[in-house]
Amino acid sequence: MASTKSAFNVTLASAFALSVAAFGVVLPGAARAAPPPAPGLVTPAWLKAHLHDPNQVIIEVYDTNAQKSAYESEHIPGAVFTGFLSEPWRTTVNGVRGMLQPPAEIARLIGSYGIGNATRVILVPGGRTQGDFNAAARIFWTLRIEGEDNVSILDGGDHAWLADPTDPVATGDVAPKPVAFVPQHGKGYLATLERVQMTLSTHEFQLVDARPPAQYDGKVKSPVDARAGTLPGAFNLPYTVVLTSDGEGVRPMSELSATLQRAGITRNGPTITFCNTGHLASTAWFVLREVFANPKVRLYDGSMTEWSADPSRPMVKGHSPF
Predict the structure, then answer these.
(1) Of the candidates 254, 247, 300, which has an alpha carbon nearest to the alpha carbon of residue 278?
(2) Do 265 and 156 share a structural domain?
(3) H helix or E strand, kind and range, residue 243
């Protein structure tokens, strides 16, 4: 046990040292008082009441850096910008896109947004009319798996915030103030390829495919997948059926409950969500884990891109109820 603990401490110390080297100066983010925990999904009214809380970082999540002008034209006061697909929130491992970054790299990225180990983070699906809750949910999952437990998503995103003329709005750019973040990789968040392979035999987890019905049914396939179809025994929960039409918020609980029933999904059972690259599956993971309070939900970040690459791995054509 002593050697394991020692190795763990060395890993954390190495990540901390890398953060110091990357930023040149370390703000004492971990030493500052942690704000009270917030719900996984917060309302605009909640954020308005907590807008100026200390040791809090608000991140407006857009798909790419090309959309930064939209952020600069109007955003929540104090919020910083990220382009999910442009920044290294994910990486390629052995030819598989969308995988979790190694600890040192993800620690450097998280810290660059001013997030320390005692920071509250509010993620905002960006855009006045149409946003990407999936991207915010994937960053949420990334922060959680690396030990940032006090993280939330603004339900309705910018669309909901900007719809109320009494909500304050800022313009221009907000430069984050980097701090050191030490990753503390948590268990129970990630489903590996090996775990999915075992599940096909043991049925320990229910499998939830968050892709559109046409992909689940094998009628079309994503360009990143080698083959069409889905995992044997998987249920279909398209991300569109749990999100509002603007793509920035979650549908009411009554609608979500009816949707899960229609899909045949058990809300409180051990579950693995997947899609093509772990992007869309993040929303299914968030809804099941945070909205339905099921701690037994994992995300398969390799998803169908990794699975379909090997022709020996079984795939079937689904029959989506949606």
Answers:
(1) 300
(2) no
(3) none
Measured torsion, CA atoms of residues 61, 63, 69, 72, in degrees rounded to the nearest 10: 0
Q: Which two tokens stand for residue 119?
A: 């920071």
| Residue 58: φ, ψ to 5° | -105, 125
Distance of CA 173 to the CA centre of its chain: 24
Q: Which residues contact 13 (CB under 8 A, 6 or more apart)?
A: none
Rounded to an integer, what distance in angstroms lies between the CA atom of residue 255 and that of residue 40?
A: 19
| pLDDT score for 34 | 84
Question: 207-231, pLDDT tens digit by residue?
Answer: 999 999 999 999 999 999 999 999 9
**Tokens of residue 95, six digits:** 């030819």
Same domain, 129 and 228: no
- Distance from first CA to last CA of the chain, Å, rounded? 50
Residue 117 lies in a domain: yes
Mean pLDDT by 10 residues, the chain (322 residues): 36 42 41 86 98 97 98 98 98 95 96 97 96 98 97 98 97 97 95 98 98 98 98 98 97 98 97 98 98 98 98 98 98
DSSP 8-class letter at 75: B
Range of the domain at 266: 193-307
Asked if residues 217 and 317 have their Cβ atoms less than 8 Å apart, the reply is yes
Structural domain count of the chain: 2
Q: Is residue 206 situated within a structural domain?
A: yes
